[in-house]
Amino acid sequence: MNITKQTIIDALEIHASKVGESSSIENESIKNIQVFGNEVIIDIEIKNPTLQAKKKIESEIVECLEKLAADIEIKLNFN
Question: pTM of the full predicted structure?
């Protein structure tokens, strides 16, 4: 599957709707998405900068995006 910025946005919004939360896109916490082949870099602005909050967001995004491609490399930058 060809990974694009739009496929990532769609996957995150679908995941959020399944778990009954507002998506990171809707609440504007995702500031930037860059795709370079199978490498995805996402810039996220969070209000709760604790390690626990970062790990929760990271695990949810990684779990969601790994369904798009098995060899995807995901890097999250928290601001």
Answer: 0.82
